[in-house]
Amino acid sequence: MGNSPDLAPMDFAVNGIFMGLLFNKKPRDDTGLVRAIKTAWVKLPMDKIQRALQSWKRRVEFMIERKGFQIEHLLN
Fold this sequence. Notes:
GO molecular function, one term: nucleic acid binding
InterPro entries: RNaseH_sf (IPR036397)
Oligomer: single chain
Number of domains: 1
Largest sheet: none
Protein backbone atom coordinates (compact mmCIF):
# COMPACT_ATOMS: atom_id res chain seq x y z
CA MET A 1 0.00 0.00 0.00
CA GLY A 2 1.16 3.51 -0.67
CA ASN A 3 2.10 5.95 2.06
CA SER A 4 -0.99 8.10 1.63
CA PRO A 5 -3.18 8.59 4.71
CA ASP A 6 -6.09 8.64 2.24
CA LEU A 7 -5.63 4.86 1.90
CA ALA A 8 -5.08 3.70 5.47
CA PRO A 9 -8.36 3.15 7.37
CA MET A 10 -6.61 3.89 10.67
CA ASP A 11 -5.58 7.29 9.29
CA PHE A 12 -8.70 8.37 7.42
CA ALA A 13 -11.25 7.06 9.92
CA VAL A 14 -10.23 5.48 13.18
CA ASN A 15 -7.56 7.87 14.46
CA GLY A 16 -9.87 10.89 14.39
CA ILE A 17 -12.63 9.09 16.27
CA PHE A 18 -10.14 7.59 18.72
CA MET A 19 -8.50 10.94 19.42
CA GLY A 20 -11.93 12.49 19.96
CA LEU A 21 -12.69 9.89 22.61
CA LEU A 22 -9.40 10.67 24.36
CA PHE A 23 -9.41 14.46 23.92
CA ASN A 24 -10.51 15.54 27.40
CA LYS A 25 -8.86 12.71 29.31
CA LYS A 26 -6.08 13.77 31.64
CA PRO A 27 -4.49 10.64 33.08
CA ARG A 28 -2.19 11.18 36.03
CA ASP A 29 0.21 8.36 35.26
CA ASP A 30 1.03 5.60 32.78
CA THR A 31 -1.56 3.27 34.29
CA GLY A 32 -4.27 5.90 33.86
CA LEU A 33 -3.17 6.50 30.28
CA VAL A 34 -3.37 2.80 29.44
CA ARG A 35 -6.80 2.61 31.09
CA ALA A 36 -8.05 5.63 29.09
CA ILE A 37 -6.75 4.16 25.83
CA LYS A 38 -8.34 0.76 26.48
CA THR A 39 -11.65 2.38 27.43
CA ALA A 40 -11.65 4.53 24.29
CA TRP A 41 -10.73 1.54 22.12
CA VAL A 42 -13.78 -0.47 23.19
CA LYS A 43 -16.00 2.58 22.59
CA LEU A 44 -15.00 2.90 18.93
CA PRO A 45 -18.20 2.75 16.87
CA MET A 46 -17.96 -0.45 14.85
CA ASP A 47 -20.42 0.77 12.21
CA LYS A 48 -18.10 3.65 11.29
CA ILE A 49 -15.09 1.36 11.21
CA GLN A 50 -16.95 -1.09 8.98
CA ARG A 51 -17.93 1.72 6.59
CA ALA A 52 -14.31 2.86 6.47
CA LEU A 53 -13.15 -0.65 5.61
CA GLN A 54 -15.87 -1.00 2.98
CA SER A 55 -14.73 2.24 1.33
CA TRP A 56 -11.13 1.06 1.07
CA LYS A 57 -11.43 -0.54 -2.38
CA ARG A 58 -12.97 2.63 -3.82
CA ARG A 59 -10.21 4.72 -2.25
CA VAL A 60 -7.53 2.51 -3.81
CA GLU A 61 -9.22 2.78 -7.22
CA PHE A 62 -9.36 6.60 -6.95
CA MET A 63 -5.70 6.70 -5.90
CA ILE A 64 -4.70 4.61 -8.93
CA GLU A 65 -6.75 6.84 -11.27
CA ARG A 66 -5.16 9.96 -9.74
CA LYS A 67 -1.67 8.45 -10.01
CA GLY A 68 -1.05 8.83 -6.29
CA PHE A 69 -2.34 12.37 -5.87
CA GLN A 70 -4.70 13.43 -3.09
CA ILE A 71 -8.17 11.89 -3.31
CA GLU A 72 -9.98 13.02 -0.15
CA HIS A 73 -11.91 15.73 -2.01
CA LEU A 74 -13.26 13.11 -4.45
CA LEU A 75 -14.79 10.93 -1.75
CA ASN A 76 -17.38 13.22 -0.20
